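Same chain as my last thread, 126 residues:
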Amino acid sequence: QVQLVESGGGLVQAGDSLRLSCAASGRTFTSNTMAWFRQAPGKEREFVAGINWSGDDTDYADSVKGRFTISRDNAKNTLYLQMNSLKPEDTASYSCAAVGYSSRTIYTKHSQYHYWGQGTQVTVSS
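reply #2:
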């Protein structure tokens, strides 16, 4: 059974940092594009950051560019999201996702991802 399990969320103040992790089990995603999405109450799920299979190509939403960094450790089958200078508008449930086939493309639409974690809540107070 394939599982993606996020961790690292929490309640922080504006300006603080958090690092999210996403551990994969049941299969490896070393050849697959992976990404982070987030969803705030009453809003649609939105792309946050994506990374190609080797980690040498990344893409970010404009709202997080320069503050968030996505990375991966294929030896550990784990995806990360380093979030710095957090803002109240970053408050959301953050989910990791993986494409179900080998791909070099970083997709930004959630419909293009086949595997999803349950999400971890990030709350940023002002």
